[in-house]
């Protein structure tokens, strides 16, 4: 929906993705409001007993939640807890549903379709375009993300604290509005400044440790962006629209591959929506090679 340059082109996948992102951003707010909470952690109820958020069908956050009585844990957050505590709790079994889901689909689909930071930064892209601010396309290589993820785990083990969870911008706006918490909010502010004046998508493309974790497991996903070489005219509009790294489309556009094999692809669908010849589509493609 938002592009850094020129007019925005709205495609079916982009619209669907934004709807999912908004729904996911609101999902964990609803239980709190249903329990009588207002903004900044205040309570609007009277003296009568009401349900606490944990007693409702859905509650929690993107790091730890419960849906219809089923506990779900973010795999990367769980890894930080494991290395920080130097022990594996039985609750870590609740990592498996989320991990299996993203392994089967494609790891970074979380980044493309769920993470609220991605949606927020698309708005930043639009603002930067309106202001005419020029920034570097890839100031930091994307392979840095997995390195940052590994460094987070090492530091978590050293200091016995899940480091990234202390500064994570994921859910920062929700926490600020609902609880008045600044946890992760300053990280989000710093990201916005960097995005506006230094590099296009530098956080999501190159620095986010959560994205680095999902990039690492993303190479085995069953869904990929597939290309019809007979329809492709090599206009490179797909590369200009890519939210990850335009280079992940190089092999496909050059006719050397029938799909985007990189684990960094988050199936956002922007390349599909921007293709004038409908040469790209998201579909099942069993991995033949593994690539970050």
UniProtKB/TrEMBL annotation:
Residues annotated as domain 4Fe-4S ferredoxin-type: 223-252, 256-285
PANTHER family found in the cross-reference section: FERREDOXIN-TYPE PROTEIN NAPH
Source lineage: Bacteria, Bacillati, Actinomycetota, Coriobacteriia, Eggerthellales
Pfam families named in the record: Fer4_10, Fer4_5
Transmembrane regions: 20-40, 77-102, 147-164, 176-198
GO CC, alphabetical: plasma membrane
Matching InterPro entries: 4Fe4S_Fe-S-bd, 4Fe4S_Fe_S_CS, Electron_Trans/Redox
A single MF term (Gene Ontology): 4 iron, 4 sulfur cluster binding
Record keyword Flavoprotein present: no
Protein name as annotated: 4Fe-4S protein
Gene3D superfamilies per UniProt: 3.30.70.20
Keyword terms: 4Fe-4S, Electron transport, Iron, Iron-sulfur, Membrane, Metal-binding, Transmembrane, Transmembrane helix, Transport
PROSITE patterns xrefs: 4FE4S_FER_1, 4FE4S_FER_2
Keyword hit for Ribonucleoprotein: no
Organism the protein comes from: Slackia heliotrinireducens (strain ATCC 29202 / DSM 20476 / NCTC 11029 / RHS 1) (Peptococcus heliotrinreducens)
């Amino acid at each position: 929906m938002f592009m850094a340059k020129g007019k925005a082109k709205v495609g079916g996948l982009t619209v669907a993705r934004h709807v999912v992102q908004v729904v996911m951003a609101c999902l964990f707010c609803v239980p709190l409001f249903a329990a009588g909470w207002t903004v900044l952690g205040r309570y609007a109820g009277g003296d009568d007993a009401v349900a606490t958020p944990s007693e409702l069908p859905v509650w929690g956050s993107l790091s730890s939640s419960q849906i219809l009585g089923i506990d779900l844990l973010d795999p990367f957050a769980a890894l930080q807890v494991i290395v920080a505590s130097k022990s594996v709790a039985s609750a870590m079994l609740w990592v498996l549903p989320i991990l299996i889901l993203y392994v089967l689909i494609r790891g970074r689909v979380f980044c493309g379709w769920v993470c609220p930071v991605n949606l927020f930064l698309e708005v930043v892209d639009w603002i930067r375009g309106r202001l005419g601010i020029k920034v570097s396309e890839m100031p930091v290589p994307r392979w840095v993300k997995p390195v940052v993820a590994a460094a987070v785990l090492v530091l978590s083990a050293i200091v016995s604290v899940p480091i990234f969870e202390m500064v994570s911008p994921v859910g920062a706006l929700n926490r600020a509005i609902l609880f008045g918490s600044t946890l992760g909010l300053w990280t989000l502010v710093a990201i916005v400044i960097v995005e506006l004046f230094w590099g296009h998508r530098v956080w999501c493309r190159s620095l986010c440790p959560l994205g680095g974790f999902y990039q690492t497991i993303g190479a085995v996903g069953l869904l990929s962006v597939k290309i019809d070489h007979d329809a492709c005219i090599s206009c490179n509009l797909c590369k200009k629209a890519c939210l990850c790294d335009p280079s992940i489309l190089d092999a496909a556009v050059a006719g050397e591959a029938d799909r985007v094999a990189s684990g960094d692809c988050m199936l956002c669908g922007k390349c599909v929506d921007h293709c004038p010849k409908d040469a790209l589509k998201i579909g099942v493609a069993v991995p033949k090679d593994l690539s970050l």
